[in-house]
Amino acid sequence: MKKVLILLALFTFIISCSEDKSSNAEILEISVNSFSNSDLIFENTFVDTENNKVYLFINNNLNDFTFPISINANVKLSPGAKTKSLSSDEISFSKADEVKLLEVEAEDGSLKNWYVYLVHQQIQNSDFEDWFDNQGMNSKIYKEIGASSISSVWATANMGTSIYDVHCTQPIMDGTNTMVEIVTGETTSLPITTGTIFTGLFNVAGAISNPTDPEKATVFGTPFIFRPKGFKFKFKYQAGERYIQATLNNPSNIFGGFSVTDISGEDQCSIYAYLEIRDGDQITEIARVKMESGTTVNSLTETELIFPYNSNLNPTHLTIVFSSSTGGAEWRGAVGSTLVIDDLELIYE
Amino acid sequence: MMRKIFALFLFIAFIFTVNAQERKFNFYPNIAVDLGGAIPFPLSDITDGAGGTPKPYPSLGIGSEYNLNEKWQLALEINYHLIAFSADADVVSQPFYWDDGTAQYFTGYTETDVELRMVEFPLIAFYQLKEGRKFLFGAYYSRILEGRFDTKGINGVLSSNKEDTDNAVLPGSANVPYSFGQFIDKYDYGVLIGYRYNLNHRLYLWARLNVGFKSIFVEEFNNIDYEMYQVRINLGVSYKLFE
C-alpha cells in the first residue's frame, strides 16, 4: 500500500511539473542601453502585444545616418522564455526601414515571432520607392507598398479589390524615381472603389464582412511619438469625368447591389493627417489637417500642410491618408480620378 | 405573435392540468439533448470529404398529452432549444452571388459554425405499439430567437473570375469570413418522428428526429447556391406529473 502511495505521489509530482511549463512567449519590456552611433537619441519603446510588434523610437532622421546601426538592448521576456534569434543583446539594422525578427521560445518550446521596428522622425518608405510582389486573393501577383507585408507601415486597399483583379494604388516610374498612382476605379460588383494609401493596416476580414462599408476595412495609424510641425509632399491630380453617387439598393442586405446616379460638381482628392494619443480605449486627437481639391494639377507640385495642435503633449500614433476621391467611403466619386504623390516629408521646427 | 402563441399554450396547458384528475390529461416536463443542425439542400451540394460535428446542448420544455383512447395520444409541448454545429469542407469554385447578378467564387478550405436559439411548439401523436412502447410523429413550429451562421474561407482563392478558382493552386492568400446571421429567418416548421419507451408509469425515454420543411434563411436570401434545412435528433426524458 505504501509503495502504491509513493508511486501515486511521484506520478502526481511529474504531472504537476509538466503542467507548470508555460506557453507564454511574450516580450514584456525592452530597454535600450546604447547605440553603435552616439549621435542617435533614444526616446522610448512601445511593445504592441496585440500584433507582436516592438517599436524603438529614435529622435533623429535616420535617413541622414550611415547604416548598419547596432542597438544594445535588454529584452525582458515571459518567465522561462528565451529568444532564439538573438545570440547577444545586440540588434543590428542594415537600414532604417529594416524590420528585425525576434523568435521567442516559450518554456514549453512553443514559438512566437515578434518584429522590431525603428521609428524615427520620418515615416519609413515615405519616398514610396519600395514595393513588393504580393499575392492577391485571386492568386494573381500585384505590387504592394513597402519592402514586405510585415515591414510596411503603409497600406492600400489593393488586397480587398484583388478579388476583381483591380488594384487602385500602384507604383509608376519616372526615370528611376518611383511615385504612387492612386486611381478611383470600379469592379463588377462595386460601381466605385476609391484608391487610397495610408499609414496603418488594411483589414481584409473587415472588407469581406462589410463589403459595402469601406471604413471597416481600414485600421488607421502607426506608432509615432514626435511632434512634426507639418508635412510636405509632391502631388498631381486629375478628377474623373463622370461624378457619381452609388447608393445601396437594400441597406439591410450588404450584398444587395447599388444604384448609380450622376451628381453635380466634380470629384476631389483627399489628403489628411492626424496625430493621436491612444491610451487603451481612450483616444485623444491633438492635431488634424486636411486638404481637399478638385483642381487639375498636371505636374508634380510640392505642397505643405501644417498641423494645428490643440495640446502640448506628444502623440502616440500618426495617421496620414491619401485618397483619389474624398467621398469614397460614401461611394461618391468619379471613376478615373487620379492622384499621384511622391516624396512625403515630415517637417519640424 | 410570439406572445400570442405563448398565451395560447399556457391556456391549453392550464385546461389540461385542470382536467388532469380525469386521467385523460397528463402534464410533464422534458429535458433532452439536441444533436444536429442544418444540412444543405439539394444534398448534391455537400462536397466529398465534407464533415460536420454537432455540438450537443440540453433542451428544456414542458408538455401536456391527451389520451384519445388506449392506442392513441396527442401532445402539445413548448421546448427551448440551442442547436449548434460546425462543419468543414474543401470546396471548388463555390459561388456567392450579389443581387445584381455578379458573383464571387471561392476555392479552398471552409469552416462553418452555426448556432440557433429557438422556442419550439411541437404537436405530437403517439401510437402504442405494445405496452410502454410508442411510435410518435407530428409537426412543429419554432420561433428562432437568435441565429448565427459564420463561414470562414481559409488559405484559398477568391475571385470574381471563375477561371481563377477553377484553376486555383492552393494554398492561396484568401482568408475570408462571411457572416450570414442577418439572413436567418425568424421561424421554422417541419415534421418529427420518433419512439418513446416508458421506463415506468411516470418516466419516459424518447428519441425524435426533426426535419425542417423550410430553409433556415429568409426567402430573399439568394446569395448562395443551396438552402439549409434543419435536421436534428432529440434524445430526452419526460416525467409525468399526475397519475
Write up this protein:
Chain A is mostly beta strands and 349 residues long. Chain A folds into two domains: 27-119, Immunoglobulin-like (Sandwich); 131-347, BT2081, beta-jelly-roll domain (Jelly Rolls), CATH 2.60.120. Chain A is 8% helix and 47% strand. Chain A contains three helices and 25 strands. Chain A has helices at residues 2-19, 158-161, 204-209, and strands spanning 27-35, 42-48, 53-58, 69-77, 82-83, 90-93, 100-105, 111-119, 131-135, 141-145, 154-156, 169-174, 177-183, 196-202, 218-220, 222-223, 230-238, 243-248, 258-262, 269-279, 282-293, 297-306, 317-323, 332-334, 338-347. In chain A, the strands form six sheets. In chain A, strands 11, 14, 15, 16, 20, 21 and 23 form a seven-stranded antiparallel β-sheet that branches. In chain A, strands 2-3-8-7-5 form a five-stranded mixed β-sheet, with no helix packed on it. The radius of gyration of chain A is 24 Å and the shape is globular. The model of chain A has no long low-confidence stretch (mean pLDDT 91). Chain B has 243 residues and is mainly beta. Chain B has a single domain (2-87, 117-148, 184-239), classed as Porin (Beta Barrel), CATH 2.40.160. In chain B, 9% of the residues lie in helices and 65% in strands. Chain B has an eight-stranded antiparallel beta barrel with strand order 1-3-4-5-6-8-9-10. The longest helix of chain B has 17 residues, at 2-18. The two termini of chain B are 34 Å apart. The mean pLDDT of chain B is 88.
